[in-house]
């Protein structure tokens, strides 16, 4: 396995192949940036699985449920509130009164009831068919509640309708622009969140940018909230692996927060954390480490131990990427001392490592219903450790458990695709080719939805799928798939990139297996020419 410089962002190291035939692409894991703060604009998108071939601490914050003697009284109070609000809604005489009551109902009721009342409010507000700001707000709230119920298509319909209505209100001057903007901002944010949950991340970025533009028009240029908006947009770009676009927004966030809150602000620490992620992915490891160290100082001053621990783990990976192995070892030793011994494995001795991992898995089994996404992340990372020890069967088993969790959550489509790709890749390495194909095909579909059909990660998975077809003596299918992979990688990475060249090599082998020797020779000559110019 390659050193950590290639582990932070998958570069598909070409370490193994089935038999000696097609060259496999290293399993690709799509990683999102860590959530930077609780005030994130995109809070409702949920936490996306991070799974990369780096060893991070498996740290869990588990909710502890304690007996509350006032729980029954609280329940009775909420039921009384519900009854009072329903009565108020029924007796409301004006649209304004009904809408205020509905908003109160949304704050304390279950989502199904809130959606029902929103629908009733909309029918009253929209009786005359004339466009109004209240109708737009009702649609926005229905979209928001539907999103919370994971009814993404319904949510998208309500929000798109609200967006069109707001545009009409502004164009025709029916409502004051100052009143329209807050609602439009909420609609754009929700549209971005819904599209992200549906895997349409590139489209979501446009909505997030529009939401930020509205913030820029309504807030002061040094507003803390605007700084958070810039950071959130940087994180959104990181989630689609567009680090160059993410960088200026991350830097703007840091400038605003440093100027308004000072160097020792938690917001500044969060800004530096996302900048560290961006610089790492851009392979500017010195800059990444500098941002990380500055962030650590602030987190330490504020006593944020959990976030500090993750920052230290990031620092260890950066030190490895820079070849500072002694420093990295010292950093990791410090991390181990701060962590319960059943949460990290001791990497020096395989027997001890396996025992620690077994203990960790045993603990995770009990916590799957409490923190499913965190447990899925842990399963994925533990599978990486088993893979490093060539324990492929156990690694695959853990990845399948990860998929079982993610498949139930539509908003985790991107993560599901990455884990499915890795599962298929490991099955190929074990020689279980027929079993690998469904996982690879599923990965292609999920990641095409998330990143688009021309993303280099999709090209890598197509390359592995072609290798699987060739292994099953289906050279015609392999040729078609390798050709798609080559087109994608030639555009996204360039024809002289090592992975593009190897895909061209695979295409030559597939043509040879078909007996199309003229084409096989032609593509083999392209391989030679490309390596000569590499």
UniProtKB/TrEMBL annotation:
PANTHER family, sorted: KINESIN LIGHT CHAIN-RELATED
Top-rank taxon, per record: Eukaryota
The keyword NAD appears for this protein: no
Record-given protein name: MalT-like TPR region domain-containing protein
SUPFAM superfamilies documented for this protein: TPR-like
Keyword annotations: TPR repeat
Repeat region (TPR), residues: 185-218, 376-409
InterPro entries for this protein: TPR-like_helical_dom_sf (IPR011990), TPR_rpt (IPR019734)
Source organism (scientific name): Gossypium mustelinum
Residues annotated as transmembrane: none
